[in-house]
């Protein structure tokens, strides 16, 4: 198959690209390197079935050109990371909505010619906002904070993408699967935009304190990128999933403080924990989500989903890849 991966130089996109090439597909990547890195594709850069275009996807001619002859699209390009969103809310909104709109318009045009191109849309657990339920399922309400807090623009912009994609399914019968990723971690994830595990591991390696925001009692579930990519591929290979939304990730919560302690225990027992307020880490307008746990029932009913990495395996893998 000929497959388009947007955001293929990014963290998840580069792992996905490797898997698609290994399976014998031809892959075209579009990535403007806004947060992605060339070196993420080092392992496959000379692969004869890979074409990489370093360009902004927010360009109708480019989108038209790269969608020609493709059989499937994995749309991962987006502005990601709470620090980036707090610093650049205009870019976040623009990057997360306009390219998705262009892609869907182009795929709809192709669909009307009688050809079906399957699409995976990468969404996020952020669309649940601060829903107070302890475990979130795909039909739960989206509960965003005030528009004066830029953080919610990320989840709201991804929610618009979901609405657009579902409208294409409803009105035109297009084959689209939406995956809401919960905290995905693993080799190549950058710590530059607020991602917690790479920040902790880099600090522990350097013998510096691990900076825990607020009281550290926020709970998250961490899934290894290999398990997440396997789930994405499996969903796309299962036609009954088309038109539906799936939570994707791990469902075993751990507090950020506990996570810091696990990193210290595994990577460098001499490191310590320090606490930082949200206003010191981001700004006075920052608002966080206390607990984020997915209900994976729908995913497990749809595909054979058996994550292989424990949290300690994940920490060791990220540590190993950071010092490599
Ligand atoms: N990592 C996570 O835990 C997580 C959680 C929830 C959702 N997601 C979603 O998964 C997807 C991939 O995230 P990631 O963690 O790999 O982040 P990432 O920043 O590593 O990857 C995003 C990639 O998209 C590229 N990009 C951004 N805007 C672009 C544009 N206009 N044109 C071309 N390329 C563009 C960036 O350069 C980058 O390579 C995103 O859609 C994100 O919203 C990730």
How does this structure look, described?
The two termini are 33 Å apart. This protein has 11 helices and 13 strands. The longest helix has 24 residues, at 89-112. It is globular, with a radius of gyration of 19 Å. The chain has a domain at 2-182 and 225-249 and 294-307: NAD(P)-binding Rossmann-like Domain (Rossmann fold). By secondary structure, it is α/β, with parallel strands linked by helices. The structure holds nicotinamide-adenine-dinucleotide (NAD). Nicotinamide-adenine-dinucleotide (NAD) binds at residues 7, 9-13, 30-36, 56-58, 76-78, 80, 95, 99, 122, 124, 181, 183-184.
What characteristics describe this protein?
single chain, 324 residues, alpha/beta, Rossmann fold, globular, binds nicotinamide-adenine-dinucleotide
CATH top level class name of the domain at 2-182 and 225-249 and 294-307: Alpha Beta
Structural class: alpha/beta
Q: What does the largest sheet look like? A: 7 strands, parallel
Looking at the structure, the CATH topology of the domain at 2-182 and 225-249 and 294-307 is Rossmann fold
Low-confidence stretches: none
CATH architectural group of the domain at 2-182 and 225-249 and 294-307: 3-Layer(aba) Sandwich
Strand percent estimate: 15-25%
- The strand line-up of the biggest sheet is 3-2-1-4-5-6-11
* pLDDT averaged over residues: 96
So, the CATH homologous superfamily of the domain at 2-182 and 225-249 and 294-307? NAD(P)-binding Rossmann-like Domain
Measure the end-to-end span. 33 Å
């Amino acid at each position: 198959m000929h497959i388009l991966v947007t955001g293929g130089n990014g963290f998840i996109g580069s792992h996905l690209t490797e898997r698609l090439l290994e399976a014998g597909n031809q892959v075209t990547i579009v990535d403007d390197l806004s947060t992605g890195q060339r070196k993420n594709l080092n392992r496959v850069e000379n692969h004869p079935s890979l074409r990489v275009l370093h360009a902004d996807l927010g360009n109708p001619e480019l989108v038209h050109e790269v969608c020609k002859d493709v059989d499937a699209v994995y749309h991962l390009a987006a502005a990601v990371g709470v620090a980036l969103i707090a610093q650049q809310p205009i870019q976040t909104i623009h990057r997360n909505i306009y390219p998705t709109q262009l892609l869907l318009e182009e795929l709809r045009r192709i669909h009307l010619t009688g050809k079906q191109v399957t699409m995976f849309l990468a969404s996020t657990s952020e669309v649940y906002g601060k829903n107070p339920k302890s475990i979130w399922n795909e039909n739960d309400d989206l509960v965003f904070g005030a528009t004066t807090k830029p953080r919610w623009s990320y989840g709201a912009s991804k929610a618009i993408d979901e609405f657009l994609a579902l409208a294409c399914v409803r009105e035109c019968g297009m084959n689209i699967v939406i995956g809401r990723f919960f905290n995905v971690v693993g080799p190549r994830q950058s710590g530059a935009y607020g991602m917690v595990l790479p920040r902790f591991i880099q600090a522990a390696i350097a013998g510096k304190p691990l900076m825990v925001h607020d009281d550290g009692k926020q709970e998250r579930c961490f899934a290894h990128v290999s398990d997440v990519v396997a789930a994405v591929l499996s969903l796309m290979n299962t036609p009954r999933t088309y038109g539906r939304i799936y939570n994707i990730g791990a469902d075993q919560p751990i507090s950020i403080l506990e996570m810091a302690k696990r990193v210290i225990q595994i990577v460098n027992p001499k490191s310590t924990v320090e606490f930082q307020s949200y206003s010191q880490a981001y700004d006075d307008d920052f608002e966080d989500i206390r607990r984020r746990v997915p209900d994976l029932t729908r995913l497990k009913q749809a595909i054979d989903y058996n994550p292989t990495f424990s949290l300690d395996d994940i920490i060791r893998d990220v540590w190993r890849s950071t010092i490599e």
